[in-house]
Fold each of these.
Amino acid sequence: MDVHHAQPAGSGQREAQRHRRRGGAYVLVVILSAIVAVLGTGGLLLRERVFEIADRRSGSAAARTLARSSAELAIQMVHDGFDVSSAWVGLPFVDFDLDDGTLEAYRTGTPTDGQVTIRGAGLIGDARAYLDFEMDVSVGYRDRALALSPVAHWPFDEIAAEAPAGVVDVVGAANGVHADITAAGTSTGPDGEPAPWFDAGLDAVGVSHRDWMELSEATFSMWVFTPHAFDWGVALSKGSSFANQATTWVYVSAGNAVVSIEDSGTVRTVWGAVASESWVHVAFTAGNDGLYLYVNGREAMHNSSKIRDIGDATTSLTIGAVYYEGTGTIGDHIKGSVREVSVFDSVLGAAEIASLAGSGWNESLDPPEVVAGSWRWGVE
């Protein structure tokens, strides 16, 4: 028995793919037996009771059994990777059509707060039953970041010594290179994947200048980890031609994340407290409305002076330290780690940044789960 995924097709048109099997008087037994075969040990445990239910139950009870089976099939499909949030409302993505009834599942509303409502429905004869429930289909941090269309995004989830391509930009081709790959340590990010460990004096990652780095407005976003008793170090910088300063930099100093941008000879600075020994989301925006710093999705400080140029120097973007073009040296290394560094060529709004950072990592590797207490029966 086939289970079918109704995927979006063409220019936004979505069509359900239906395969129908016909049967005779024994059709309920056939369909339920086939569902057991599809689900195996991980699905609804009908097994020996299939024939008993088919023989003894009334039409409404049989419809409820079909509805529950539809719900179980829908859950199995979502666990297997089906994107239920993209399915059309009311258009079945599970659909078995019988001579005298139907078994189907479909989405019933717009996803809210990462949750989507699914209805498993069963129709046999004149009896119809349905079982509604919610599933948490929230996406992970990287998917949320990429959905906001950055011009570059470096996950920093490679093990340096095993990554000959360097630090990969998953949006474009702006890959980075370790300054000292032999000194590149490895830590662990909040998602259990590798993260680089910069040890305050050796390694950093350089990304060669690109034209898109000459920004008149921008948003930078990243996760930062620093240990206890760490006093000073730069997480990200875009250098200048001067020997002892950067045009744009994000650094950690005495328990604060600090963003400093030099624009037309004037330095604008914002800062906000960050915890040590934990992963902290740091983002800043720069443009006509000035310079904003956000820590864990909340606004920490605003400098209202207009920012006209961000990173307009032709030097490398450096992560984990500062590259001083005037002397050709790298300095002010951070001790700690970074993950999921994004650059946007626009100013993200406060709500977008709160949405991006507010749910933390929210592991997308874990399968979506049914929201506890969300089951609701209905019979027509």
Note: Confidence is low (pLDDT under 50) at residues 1-27, 40-52, 241-246.
Amino acid sequence: MSSAMQSIELIFVVVLFCVTSVVSAQDIPNVVDRSIELETVSTEFEMADGPCWDGWSLVIPDVKGQKLYRYIAKKNELQTLVPDAGRISATFFNHGRTFLSDNANGQLAFLDGRKIVTVASFAGLEKQGDKRAYRPNDLVVDNYGGTYVTFTPQGQVVYVAINGEISVATESIDTPNGITMSPDGSTLFVSSFVPKKIWAYQISEPGKLRAGRQIAVMDDGPERGADGMTVDRAGNVYCAGPTDIWIWSPSGRLIDKIACPSKPINCTFGDQDMRSLYITGPGGLYRQRMKICGRSPSPISLDLKPVATNPIHKNESTPDTKIPADLKAQLDVVYAQYGERRLLLDIMAPKTARATNKLPCLVVVHGGGWYNGDKTKFRALATRLATRGYVVASIEYRLAGEAAFPAAIHDCTAAVRFLRANADKYYLSPDKIGAIGGSAGGH
């Protein structure tokens, strides 16, 4: 081959490499707000563990100090919530309730005011000859009021249904530790502590998992520690490692890492805009501002047992978000997908809707200046409209921190296209679709 041809071939390879690198770099979302440094919120913990955002404050268990704390971000104030909580290893807020992984007592519990109430005991899972008691580690709560719980020594993930029935979802994973769920509820993610692997399980029905697949591994040396997990609203997966919070796309492509001052144990999104990632560990509580938001918890919509005597955030002016018996709710339905990003909507409709009785449809668009907000904020309005004879679709859209305007407008029109295309499925009139919203949603 001539020297000229070799030069041309070399230039072609270099150009191709550069183009591929640029495309790959542009394809990776920028989720961490690097303009704001990681902040130390408090060091008043022996070991802060799995936190949760309850809509107005952050609940943090101190698993070694055996206390439950509440951090009120607006006041920058840390309060002792339950001084004698025992060894609570994780918390999760959903359906208006703070669920607790009561490691010391081997039970799933919830916080009723300042009292810890048992939901289910795991003593019945123990078999004769077992060397280790069944003590729950981490947990995540689904749209149906059921809870997935990890049991690390036993290699199991257990499901507690809304009626209290306990079943083993999987027992084929090495040292399961952290656990979280995709925004659409279709995939359960579990971290394997010792080998530092991340597993994904398709959920066929509540409590039933298909075979798992490994999607990622922490390749940062021999130190153990794939720990607590969370997801953001785009479905990206976060996991505490030996020194960093690792962030992957839903398929396991590494997006970023957040270096921590001490070994991180767990993490969750919080604050009113859900744009702060709170990180816990033996060093205390930290906060990193993000460009993308976390998932807002589902509003109170289910009749959970035992009944709480001190329901939080409940007063005469609080709108009722419970779903009436005469309505059918389909939550977190995928209406569009861009790459790995799935956009979701909630559908409420009267059970009287039929193929022969198609109803007019209203699209509910939440407010927030195209920068904040969530489709769950208008749950009470959506429910009320559905009781008046409409098929109601409350939609999420990509906020400005995730995708520049007018991406949000494009998402709204994509939702309408989806509804028209699936009019027969949802018993709606494709030529009778209207819209309602507040603030940005009114725009």
Note: Confidence is low (pLDDT under 50) at residues 3-26.
Amino acid sequence: MKTRGRGRPRAPPPLRRGLRRLSAPAPRGAAALARPRGRHLRERRPRGRPPGLGRVRRRDRRAPRRPGRPLAAEARAKGEAGEALAPELRRLGRLDPGLVHSADLHRLRARRWELEAPIRIAVLHHPVSPLPTITDVAPYAGLINAGAVKDALFDRRFALVLHGHQHAQWLGEERWPGHAAGDHTLRIAAAPSLGSREVAEQHGYNEVLILREGDRHEVEVRTYTRSGDTWSRGPASLGPFAVE
């Protein structure tokens, strides 16, 4: 290295003022936003997601497990609770009430059936009257609003009601003296089981005959029962009766 004077090395030139600014603290606030230099002001976002949408974490809605309670003890407690409720569930399972909604009864009363259907037959599942042939072991075996249903049927002068539910054959007639419909008779036909090993009653069915001559209509209900492999006509019947 070449030296001058006393042999000392030449001193480096002084740093310029522009280089000294690199060590100054970075500007803050509005001054920093006004200097879009480099990549520091670009928005960083995850790949494959729209801007402004961060990572979404699923919230675990499961209830936290109680500390110190093993799964076996929890299952055993549930089993004991189920055994304790079993008698009550069996009792509630025997409750089989029937109900005709008030909206249906309103539509039944509002329609002019006599102009559209000269023969009016109602078909229900639950009985509208108690059957004398079997004992009602189940509470609420019939309609819980049977009175309101029959009142609407009398009002619109229905000729016949067909129902089942109790798997017993039975025929009946009802009259309500003093009713607004006048002297009207409502016939009821309960259908037996056609074929089942789960019932103790005799198998059978009902036959409904509709007879017409001009503008006059008649209805007849015949009963049939099964004895072995043969079917025979039963002694009970309704009609033939004229439809008013």
Note: Residues 18-23, 30-34 have pLDDT under 50 and may be disordered.
